[in-house]
Amino acid sequence: MRKISIIALSGLSTLSVAFASSAYSGDLSSICQYFEVSDEAATLGLSLYVLGFAIGPLLRAPMSEAFGRIIVFLVTFSLFTIFNIAAAISANFASVVIFRALAGMFGSAPLTNSGGVVADLYSAETRGLAAVFYSCATFLGLFWAPLRADFSARLKDGDGDVLLRRRAVMLSMKTGKLYVTSVDHRNPPGSLAERFQVSTTRPLHLLSKEPIVVVLALYMSFLYGTTYLLLAALPIVFQRVRGWSPGMGGLAFVPIAIGMLFATAFMVFINRQYTRKFRASETGQLPPEARLPSGKVGAALIPIGLFLFAWANDPSIHWAVCMVGTAFFGFGNICVTLALVNYLVDSCSIFLKHD
Questions:
Q1: 146, part of any domain
Q2: Which of 254, 329, 279 is CA-nearest to residue 299?
Q3: 224 and 350 part of one domain
Q4: Residue 331 has pLDDT above 90, yes or no
Q5: Beta strand spans in the chain (E)
Q6: How high is the pLDDT of residue 94?
Q7: What are the distances in angstroms from CA 279 to CA 123, 140, 166, 283, 284?
Q8: How far is the C-alpha of 83 from the C-alpha of 87, rounded, in Å?
Q9: What is the CATH number of the domain that holds 60?
Q10: Are residues 112 and 245 in the same domain?
Q11: 31-36: Cβ within 8 A, 24+ apart
């Protein structure tokens, strides 16, 4: 039950960050009108928020290894909340953009470190199911937020090594004897600066030495960027081109959420198959590639969905065709993301525990 509550809190915190990222795009026309800026300038509030997602993790992962996840979560999420409030009460557009960028930078901690929490708490056999519900919260937050925006025009420490080191220090103080963890006995942690340097350079090492990491990082970056492009495109297609009201235009995000919910059910089924194969394995483990079958389905549905959405933009074509396309995209998005994330966790679990 404790594990479930931790995963639930991680999912909710990630949902909040995703919600704040896409809520901005729910009614861009109001932002343009209120601040008297162009459509292109208005999208800076969304673009720079996502840019913060790229900058924040460069420091967030090493800090979680040195100080534990709970401190990083509490500090960064507090700053994330403060900067979002500042953006909401800003009197000019420049302040909105700056505070949105800072909010994205500090809000990236749940998006990046929560995956490490899942890897810490669950074994390879059960990790997939936990990741399904965690990722579902992440993506549903992206597409629920614009709908909500249109119509309204305690976390436990998951870093095992840090926790064990604290217990060893407490035992040493109580007994007068020296206690160390088994991990530190085999591999002394070194100074804080050394650990920080290792954690900072490790992602660069993986990107430079592991071609598969480079390819998957580029593909997932493209997919994530396309997701936010779709968030910005839906209000234009349905409100400006088709003439829907902001409230009705927000309903265009519903098919994506429906597709993601169906994908979640599909991934639960896929994970059960994985579990059966895992238990039947003679070696007691499966290769990381066993996580990829669902990704093949998603990789086919994503371009099909985007083609349907782009082809059916004209008002002469029924709006339902557009929405079927976005539902396919939502389904494929979940399938691909979960497959690749679980693949990377299984392949690099010794590193991903902290990164």
A1: no
A2: 329
A3: yes
A4: yes
A5: none
A6: 92
A7: 13, 32, 35, 9, 7
A8: 6
A9: 1.20.1250.20
A10: no
A11: 31/93, 35/92, 35/93, 35/96
Task: Give the C-alpha separation, 197 to 199, whole Å.
Answer: 6
Cβ atoms of 117 and 157 within 8 Å: the answer is no
Mean pLDDT of 216-221: 88
Which DSSP state fits 240? I
CA 92/CA 81 separation, integer angstroms: 19
Domain assignment present for 334: yes
Domain boundary, last residue among 91, 106, 124: 124
Question: Both tokens of residue 334?
Answer: 């979940």
pLDDT in tens, 12-49: 787 788 778 777 766 677 788 888 888 778 888 888 88
Q: Please check whether residue 117 lies inside any domain of the structure.
A: yes
Look up residue 169 and give its two tokens: 């220090």
Give Cα separations from 82 to 66, 74, 87 (angstroms): 25, 12, 9
The last residue of one of the domains, among 96, 124, 152, is 124
How far is residue 249's CA from residue 208's CA, in Å, rounded to a whole number? 44
As to burial, measured by CB atoms within 10 angstroms (0-12 exposed, 13-18 middle, 19+ buried), residue 52 is buried
**Domain membership flag for residue 201:** no
Q: What's the total number of domains in the chain?
A: 2
Measure CA 114 to chain center.
8
Tokens for 2?
């404790």
State whether 229 and 111 are in the same domain.
no
Task: Give residue-wise pLDDT tens across range 290-308.
Answer: 889 999 999 999 999 999 9
Find the domain containing 325 and state its range. Answer: 210-354
Give the residue with greater pLDDT, 171 vs 290: 290
